[in-house]
Design goal:
By secondary structure, this protein is of the alpha/beta class. Helix content is 49%, strand content 9%.
Length: 743
């Protein structure tokens, strides 16, 4: 690790008071060493990673990290804060901050070294030594492994410096008592936190790491019941055996910290635990024999577990990776209780890929409101490609064959290669088939978001029934939620071992489809169909002021979260209206207003960076160039980099412009049959010139507001923002204080 951290990358008196300021301070050291090429671009990548999941850990540790194209070589910077900085850890502020920067294409050797550091952070002697390090060179040496931290009693707590393969990830297991580590209260140490000292330096021989046995330290004792490759001494049946998988979005830090935490907790609990960290440097699969012999499984992950069906038929605990770091003993106790009850949760049968997409997105303690939003977004995200493909094909069919092309006979019976009408009919009919999947796909993948693959069959069946009974989009939502709930209920039933093999392919699809079909046909289908018809009739009757207000509301929704749940609700509402062979005029007006409003944010940011570039960072000005194309293509997400850097100015401004555009589009009576395409489908728009005027009005309004609000910011005295010629401040990530940069 000698090439990754030097004394110049260490700040033992970090004065920042927010995590954003801390990241900036440490990143500036990386820039000074030529390790980072674009400060703001790199910090944006750090902020994006932080937004996925807070990087604060129990024990006073903050470990912001990311992969970035702006990093020239793998780099680590370390800061020590006397006051403590909030990184979102449950136990309070962090005083030890590690900023890890990995290039977009970092090689496996460097990533393995970073994983070794992550494991060291779970060692109390290592963190205590960093808190008492007298100078930057000493702290850098500790992190590199040039010096081993001393445990209480004077023995080395780490037997060796990190190596460049996975065996280096084995670290000493030290039992804790109430003593305070030597020097832990010295300058720069914890903010109101004392580090527990190890009572001895013994390393359990054969401690389990990633499916392989780590070498024991010289003279180390192996306590009975530690996590070894064989049964515990003196036990006829052997210890309770657990296999675990850990993973996180970047696969650099949390993956390996969770693995180390689980292994340490396993040793303390007297169980045999073997962990497979699925990190960015690749992973070594657990021996199938080890999995077969395991009594239970723990998944601590924030990205899907690879080859998850290997663990089928075991009692399972499935949580986010932070839970694996912060409460490993609770997870072990929980999975042992499940094993004692014979509970196998969602992995009851071979071939089932348990752990729903919602569970993979975060901790199991999330509220039902958050889960419901994720379930719905799962369905919408899978539906959108069908909307785009089918809608554009239908629109092209109308463009080539005229507006009566929907009355054409089937191209199977009548198709002439030389006639444009035949080609128009072909495109229209292909698009119509694609559109026919919208509601079933929506329902199927809502159920998938709730119950994973077993939810697909009843979800698709329920969505198809919704179309049959004319319950439409609302029926699809209900069918998906019902299907997912039914499957989840079935999975909680204890099943005899002899029946587990047929559960995912026979029993669950049969029972869940029958229940969903009964409810949709007999119980709730008719009321939903009536509500759908009433809503459609109401929209069809909107004229004048009411229609304008509807357009403004849809415009606000499209610009509120730029591709997020609220945006998708408005978009799905619009596409559902035109997903019929002969949509009404009001449905096409709604579609036009929604697409026009969705183009406003990225086009506005592109214009703002052009007319007042000095208010934006160099990275934002580059993003502005791409935003022209994204906005013109109706990709609202093109404005996300700007909203993430300055949400309080960008989002309200975008909403104002979106509302203006949506209202004007409805007032002008613009119509649109295509659900996507931006300016490239203008020939398919009714009243195209006025439609473009509506978009231009919203873009100008948003641009003016953004420029005005950004121009009102006052820089600190004597400060010149990066990349500007004459003052202002550098736009920052959400929650970051504006950081003036000295000229």
């Amino acid at each position: 690790m000698s090439d990754m951290i030097t004394a110049d990358l260490v700040d033992l008196d970090l004065s920042a008071d927010t995590k954003e300021a801390a990241a900036r301070s440490l990143a500036e050291r990386m820039v000074a060493q030529g390790r980072v090429t674009d400060l703001d671009g790199f910090l944006a990548d750090v902020a994006a990673r932080e937004a996925q999941m807070p990087t604060g850990l129990d024990g006073g540790i903050g470990i912001p990290h990311c992969r970035s194209a702006h990093v020239t070589e793998p780099t680590l910077a370390f800061g020590r804060s006397a006051a403590g900085i909030d990184f979102g850890a449950p136990d309070g502020p962090a005083d030890l901050i590690f900023l890890i920067a990995a290039p977009a294409g970092a090689d496996d050797a460097h990533l393995t070294i970073l994983s070794s550091l992550a494991r060291q952070l779970m060692n109390a002697d290592f963190t205590a030594a960093l808190r008492s390090a007298p100078d930057a060179e000493g702290a850098a040496a500790l992190i590199r492994g040039d010096e081993a931290p001393r445990a209480a009693g004077g023995t080395d707590a780490l037997s060796a410096a990190p190596a460049s393969d996975d065996s280096a990830s084995a670290s000493a297991s030290a039992s804790q008592d109430s003593a305070v580590a030597p020097g832990a209260a010295s300058a720069g140490a914890t903010a109101g936190r004392t580090a527990p000292a190890a009572t001895g330096a013994a390393t359990p021989a054969g401690s389990a790491t990633a499916g392989r046995t780590a070498p024991a330290a010289t003279g180390a004792a192996t306590p009975a019941g530690s996590a070894t490759a064989g049964p515990a001494a003196g036990s006829a049946e052997g210890p309770f055996r657990i296999v675990a998988v850990t993973s996180c979005p970047t696969g650099i830090a949390h993956t390996y910290m969770a693995a180390e935490s689980l292994e340490n907790a396993g040793r303390e609990a007297g169980v045999e635990i073997t962990v497979e960290p699925q990190g960015s440097a690749g992973f070594t699969r657990l021996d199938p024999a080890v999995i077969a012999a395991a009594d239970a499984v723990i998944f601590a992950h924030d990205v899907p577990v690879r080859e998850k069906d290997r663990f089928a038929g075991k009692p399972t605990v499935d949580v986010g990776v932070k839970a694996g770091i912060n409460r490993p003993a609770e997870l072990i106790a929980e999975v042992r209780e499940k094993a004692a009850r014979g509970e196998t949760t969602a992995l009851a049968a071979a071939g089932q890929d348990a752990g729903t997409p919602v569970e993979r997105a975060g901790d199991s303690t999330e509220g039902y409101g958050t889960k419901l939003r994720t379930w719905l977004m799962s369905g919408v995200s899978y539906m959108v490609p069908f909307v785009a493909a089918g809608g554009l094909l239908i629109a092209l069919g109308f463009a080539i064959g005229g507006y009566k092309i929907n009355k054409a006979p089937s191209v199977m019976d009548h198709f002439l290669w030389t006639q444009a009408d035949s080609w128009g009919a072909l495109l229209f009919q292909i698009g119509g088939v694609a559109f026919g999947f919208l509601v079933p796909v929506l329902a199927g993948y809502i159920a998938y978001g709730m119950a994973d693959r077993p939810g697909l069959v009843p979800g698709f069946v329920g969505g198809a029934i919704s179309l049959t009974i004319n319950a439409g989009f609302l029926g699809g939502l209900a069918a998906g939620l019902i299907a997912g709930g039914v499957v989840m209920a079935i999975q909680r039933v204890r099943i005899p071992a002899a029946l587990r093999g047929i559960m995912p392919v026979v029993v669950i699809p049969l029972i869940s489809s029958a229940i969903v079909g009964f409810l949709m046909f007999v119980v709730i289908g008719k009321p939903i169909a009536s509500a759908q018809k009433a809503m459609t009739d109401w929209l069809g009757g909107l004229t004048g002021t009411n229609a304008v207000l509807l357009g403004a509301l849809l415009g606000l929704m499209m610009c509120f979260d730029l591709g997020g749940p609220v945006n998708k609700v408005a978009y799905t509402f619009a596409t559902a209206g035109i997903a019929v062979s002969d949509p009404g005029d009001s449905a096409m007006k709604i579609m036009a207003a929604v697409m026009a409003a969705g183009m406003v944010p990225p086009l506005s940011m592109a214009l703002a960076t052009t007319v007042r570039g000095k208010l934006f960072t160099p990275t934002e000005r580059e993003n502005g160039k791409a935003a022209w194309v994204l906005g013109a293509s109706f990709i609202s997400e093109g404005a996300i980099p700007f909203a993430a850097a300055d949400p309080l100015r960008v989002i309200p401004s975008s909403m104002v412009g979106g509302a203006i555009t949506g209202a004007l589009s409805m007032a002008f009576g613009a119509t649109l049959r295509a659900p996507h395409g931006g300016i490239f489908v203008v020939p398919l728009i009714g009243n195209p010139l006025l439609y473009l005027v509506a978009i231009a009005a919203g873009v100008c309004a948003t641009t003016a507001l953004v420029v005005l609000l950004k121009g009102l910011r006052k820089p600190a005295p004597g400060a010149t923002p990066t990349g500007t010629a004459d003052g202002g401040t550098t736009p920052t990530a959400p929650g970051r204080k504006e950081q003036p940069v000295a000229a």
